[in-house]
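Re: the request from the purification team.
They wanted to know what the chain is likely to look like in 3D before they choose a buffer screen. I agreed to run a prediction and write the result into the notebook, where they can find it.
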Amino acid sequence: MRFPENIFQTICEQLLPTACIACGEFQKSSLCDRCLNQLRDGGLLSYQCGIALQATEIAKQHCAQCQISQPYFDETYCLDRYDGLLQTPLHELKYQKRIAFANALGRTWNLLLSKELEAISADYLLPVPLSIEKLAQRGFNQSWEIAKRIRCGGYIQKSPYMLQRHHYAEHQAGSTLSNRQLAIQGMFYLEERYIKQLTNKTVIVFDDVMTSGATLNEIARVLKDNGVSRVINWVVLRAARPI
């Protein structure tokens, strides 16, 4: 039951000082007006992969890579760039296990994107999963911790169980796009009991960071191979160009 928790959160927000998660200045909200306005000025983004468009790509609203090799996902919406204001708070959540930052990032998403995305027609929202081994090591899935706090249409069902991930011991950071694509193949799967529910549905996949797009593309492939009709990415941080 979340009612007492919501009362406690409201009291804390009204009576206790807090700091902007981006600049650290003390004020009432988790993100100050100055930082909020900076996040609103995100520039022109690719409709399909969410990357910042270069001048030669603006007319087609797709980046050159998406024009050359169409990804399996259909749309991407991002809160901030990878080297932007929200990198530090996301790292505090992910690596320092400061769960309070999941609340702040969720509220920031709601402030900036919930109204824009409320008209999106989708059936399910699934976080990018961690393997059982990684989940045991970290203790939580950062994508799910943020996703369960964001607002979306009441008809959209959130589930951290439908999409699963095999364990992969090597880190992908610093790998080339082709190596990432090879490493991620066969890494994700759907729990069999959910496949029928997802047939002909639109699925939102929520991730904390999108770098090369290889992970989200592989997830979209798996979803569509199992009958999902449309896949939309919601991402907290997006790398400026594929790494």
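For the purification team: The mean pLDDT is 86.
Please add any questions underneath this entry.
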